[in-house]
Specification:
It is a single chain. The protein is α+β, with helices and mostly antiparallel strands. The protein contains five helices and seven strands. It has a four-stranded antiparallel beta sheet with strand order 1-2-3-4, with no helix packed on it. The chain has a three-stranded antiparallel beta sheet with strand order 5-6-7. Strand 5 and strand 6 form a beta hairpin. It is elongated, with a radius of gyration of 24 Å.
Length: 198
């Protein structure tokens, strides 16, 4: 069995939590879940009125109950300050849509949303080593030291000045001590100088 070695970085800087983006993702997930729950309940009522019984009838009421239970659990997680992930409820909804007549398109849509929710909510980090700067975004963004004019960490603001006149400025999550700031800035200056000599 082949395994890929884990890469270690000299510095990893956690950036400010993008609250508005995460709230937007949560709102979209909640809207999708509400639409699915209403559709399943209405189908269950329709089946009940047409005197259908059995598994499919029960599932149309069970899935919304499970969705709302997970939604409440996510709300409690958020109230305690944790990130909430609606992916389990989105997977349940995808299953419900799959059982729905002509609901395969919605099943695929909900399944894609369930798979992409967690990677979309990864806390933004910037990693620095002797070869490159890596942003853990989707897709991952890598910047070679040869492309960089200057990197400065000052007053909890990370500034990356690229040679193509692009300036990247991000707020840092944690408070950085003056010694950590000096060590980081010295490391970056050494990498830039080494890349300019190469």
């Amino acid at each position: 069995m082949l395994t890929q070695p884990t890469k270690t970085y000299d510095f990893i800087i956690v950036l400010k939590y993008p609250v508005r983006l995460f709230k937007a993702i949560d709102m979209i997930s909640q809207l999708m879940l509400a639409i699915a729950a209403i559709a399943f309940i209405l189908r269950g009522i329709l089946l009940f009125q047409n005197s259908h019984s059995g598994g499919i009838y029960t599932i149309n009421f069970l899935i919304p109950i499970l969705i709302f239970t997970w939604w409440i659990w996510c709300y409690r997680q958020q109230s305690m300050g944790y990130l909430a992930y609606y992916r389990f409820a989105l997977m349940l909804a995808a299953w419900g849509w799959y059982l729905y007549p002509k609901g395969v398109f919605f099943a695929i849509l909900y399944l894609i949303a369930a798979v992409l929710e967690k990677p979309a909510k990864v806390l933004p980090e910037v990693a620095f080593d002797s070869k490159e700067i890596v942003f853990n975004s989707i897709p991952s963004k890598k910047i070679s030291w040869m492309e960089v004019n200057n990197v400065v960490l000052k007053d909890n603001i990370l500034t990356i000045d690229l040679k193509n006149n692009q300036l990247i400025q991000k707020n840092v999550e944690a408070v950085v001590t003056p010694k950590e700031e000096a060590d980081f800035n010295a490391f970056c200056a050494a990498q830039i100088q080494a890349s300019n000599q190469a």
